[in-house]
Amino acid sequence: MKNNCTSNKYKHCARHLAFGLLLCSITLHPGGSIYAAQPADKTLRQAVRAMGGEKALRRIKAWQITGTITRHRDGAGGNYRAAAMQPGFYTSSWQVGDFESSAGFTGKSSWRADSRNGLRTLTGNASDDFQAEAWYRNHRWLDYRKERARIAYIGITTVGDKTAHAIALTTARGVKIKIYFDTASGLPVKEEMTTGESKAIEYADYLAVGGIMEPFTMILHEDGETYTVKVDRIAHNPQLAPSLFNFPRSPDEPLPDMETILAQVRSHQTQLDQLRENYGYTETTTSYQFDKHGSLKEKESETHEFTFFRGYRIRRLVAKNDQPLPVTDQAKEDRRIEKMIRDLEEGKKPDVPYNQRRLKLSDMLRVSQFANPRRERFRQRDVIVIDFEPNPDFKPRNLDDSFVHKLAGSIWIDAADMQIARTELLLIDTFKVGGGLFFAMKPGSRFVTEQDRFNDEIWLPTFTEVTINARAMMFAGFGINQKTTYSNYMRFDVKAVEKLKAPDSNAKPDKL
After folding, report:
1. Looking at the domain assignment, is residue 211 inside a domain?
2. Cα 367 versus chain centre, distance
3. Are 291 and 435 members of one domain?
4. Which of 102, 132, 224, 338 is most enclosed, with most CB atoms within 10 A?
């Protein structure tokens, strides 16, 4: 996994990923009145004041609500519960008639369970969406700048019988949450978000709870149904246990033998990390940035070919933005490679930039502790999903160990091959280089990688996604949002005679 920010690129990253300016416009309300469309920040400040003030809102580190829920289609009713605890724990559950639905984020992975589809760990966009909602339920929009999120003013609209300012909040991973604020009171009256499927919540009947204005009626639109939630009780800063947010457990479900599984996976992954040193491949890294409307758009891409010489991986740039390098640029790159090969011939070891070092999954298995195993389906195969977090008894020996030891998340293990099919990693503590003076990666930075079977003989990475919030040297904080795909795997005979020729002819490849 790469952060793509060597020291000579920090200023570039900070400049191009800085927050864009929000433009004002004039919007004509359907009723005929003209409103000056105020900047998004002003709308959010008014909402904070209306809800009780920033200091009061920040004092809430956890909350819990209970109430009743009624389905509009047939009048069936039941119970509703929801809770959140910082930094990002969240769960909600309800039961209407014979249908039950629940979801949660454990701080490591997000899950959903219902009477129709059963229990599953969320992946892909569904995982991104729900983790964004979990963070929003804990922090609202108060720390959007620090989290490298964007806000944009959409305009004036109506929600029921109220006129509302519409705001779009887009997270660093591109998840968009729309929030509507009553132009009269400033209070939120509606939210629209995606958590696997589109969901909207309307808010009404605000009352003060401990100095904070809270809605006691919610209209929930989800999965093609509409429900009314009547809140009975709202508690601020209750004592909540992390176990409240864990996966539901069936007493009849046999749990996997986690120690046996992990022993096999550790052995297989260590062997794979060694075998992969015999494989060349093509790597394409695409960077994304926010446009002025707060949407995440593709910015640029680079394609590299990886081969080997004398046991060292050779990284050769061959294309930018899906176009081959100009002849002069490619010649310059090839001269750099030739010099690297000459240095290796002379016994000089290359200095691999930190951003080009690869995180080995075997390292993560070595420094973490594991819990909460469950059996699921992923990519039409049986898998075992296990959560992990830093092992407090492990003592990092170097910078790489220190980084891996600050990660938590989940791994998806192929049940047949005992290989890692997917990993979601979340940085839960600041990672510093040079005491933070040189580089500091902030908590909340996220990494996702998937592996797959090639020719039914070896598991190799297919893609990696990174979302990084960091600060470098004296420059402003910056964000990185990248996706790297891997292709054209080729097996090399590393014992072949190596000659000083073009970089791609120093070994004998067999294309997979």
Report:
1. yes
2. 21
3. yes
4. 132
Q: Say if 117 falls within a structural domain.
A: yes
Give this prediction's pTM: 0.75
225 and 269 part of one domain: no
- In a 13 Å sphere around the CA of 112, the CA atoms on its Cβ side amount to 15
My answer on whether 85 and 225 are in the same domain is yes
Q: Tell me, what DSSP letter sits at residue 248?
A: P
- Cα–Cα distance between 481 and 289 in angstroms, integer? 7
| Residue from 263, 441, 261 nearest 366 by CA | 263
Distance CA 38, CA 45 (A): 11
Cα 434 to chain centroid, rounded: 26
pLDDT tens track for 181-208: 999 999 999 999 875 567 999 999 999 9
Mean pLDDT of 460-489: 82
Residue-wise pLDDT for 280-297, tens only, equals 899 999 998 887 777 778
CATH number of the domain where residue 65 is located: 2.50.20
pLDDT digits (tens, 9 = 90+) for 60-70: 999 999 999 99
Q: The tokens 């039914």 sit on which residue?
A: 456
Domain that holds residue 500: 258-511
Q: What is the mean pLDDT of the chain?
A: 82
**Both 330 and 234 in a single domain?**
no
The distance between the two most distant Cα atoms of the chain, rounded to a whole number of Å, is 81
Domain boundary among 213, 245, 277: 245
Six token digits for residue 463:
């893609």
Question: What's the pLDDT score for residue 208?
Answer: 97
Collapse the DSSP code of 260 into the 3-class scheme (helix H, G, I; strand E, B; otherwise coil) and give the result. Answer: helix
What does DSSP say about strands 381-390 and 188-194: parallel, antiparallel, or unpaired? Answer: unpaired
Q: Does residue 13 lie within any of the structural domains?
A: no
Contact between 155 and 166 under an 8 Å Cβ cutoff? The reply is yes
Rg of the chain over Cα atoms, rounded to whole angstroms, equals 26
Q: How far apart, in whole angstroms, are the C-alpha atoms of residue 98 and residue 501?
A: 71
Give the residue from 359, 339, 363, 360 showing the smallest Cα distance to 351: 339
Q: Do the bridges between strand 368-378 and strand 381-390 make them parallel or antiparallel, or are there none, so unpaired?
A: antiparallel
Q: Are residues 325 and 194 in the same domain?
A: no
Same domain, 263 and 241: no
Domain check: are 321 and 466 in the same one? yes
Name the residue type at position 209.
V
> 302 and 405: one domain?
yes
Asked if residue 219 belongs to a domain, the reply is yes
